[in-house]
């Protein structure tokens, strides 16, 4: 342990005096700027879209059209072996805004998500083309295509009259990887859809 004389000598050292002065100034500035107060959120609320309104992002443009709950998948009928099954469907119009085709289970499944009651993002279990109910394959550039995003629901699902979905941004990075190869990378949440949910659970066959 340093004795009293050593402490006095250190205190008179110009270098230590300067360091102490800098630290004191930094402390005063930090306090004046509220650095010790709880940080306030500076994030802005996400833009909200209703049915029929188009969200235009980097890789995709998405227009939510309608949503429903049913006991069958689009184009199907009630499963007689498991009649308690439920499905939540969001029908959207997607336009691929990139110069190349991409698979429906790529960007759409990763970027258009259901927001749960606990605010957790849930990816769709299935993507089907709305016209023939086939599994969504390639979505071609600049071609608007209707797609049904399907979520499997618990048997005792409580129907909500309005549901929230989220959309992630996806922008092109010219040097996305170590080899300088470019790619469309998913970014932060960009928008949310608030869509009325039609209850079709009383129907045994798809309309």
From TrEMBL:
Q: Where are the transmembrane segments?
A: 15-36
UniProt keywords (A-Z) are: Membrane, Transmembrane, Transmembrane helix
Entry annotated with the keyword Transmembrane: yes
Query: Which superkingdom?
Result: Bacteria
Protein name according to UniProt: DUF4352 domain-containing protein
Organism annotation: Lysobacter capsici AZ78
Q: What is the lineage of its organism?
A: Bacteria, Pseudomonadati, Pseudomonadota, Gammaproteobacteria, Lysobacterales
């Amino acid at each position: 342990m340093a004795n009293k004389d050593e402490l006095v000598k250190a205190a008179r050292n110009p270098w230590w005096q300067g360091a102490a002065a800098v630290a004191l100034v930094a402390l005063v500035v930090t306090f004046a700027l509220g650095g010790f107060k709880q940080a306030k959120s500076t994030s802005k609320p996400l833009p909200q879209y209703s049915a029929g309104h188009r969200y235009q992002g980097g890789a995709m443009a998405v227009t939510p059209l309608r949503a429903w709950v049913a006991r069958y998948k689009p184009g199907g009928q009630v499963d007689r072996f498991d009649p308690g099954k439920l499905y939540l469907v969001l029908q959207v119009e997607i336009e691929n805004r990139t110069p190349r085709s991409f698979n429906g289970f790529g960007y759409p499944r990763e970027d258009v998500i259901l927001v749960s009651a606990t605010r957790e993002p849930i990816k769709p279990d299935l993507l089907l083309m709305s016209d023939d109910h086939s599994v969504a394959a390639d979505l071609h550039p600049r071609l608007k295509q209707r797609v049904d995003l399907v979520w499997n629901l618990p048997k005792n699902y409580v129907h909500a009259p309005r549901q929230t979905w989220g959309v992630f941004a996806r922008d092109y990075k010219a040097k996305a990887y170590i080899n300088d190869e470019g790619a469309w990378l998913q970014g932060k949440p960009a928008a949310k859809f608030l869509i009325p949910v039609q209850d079709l659970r009383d129907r045994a066959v798809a309309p």
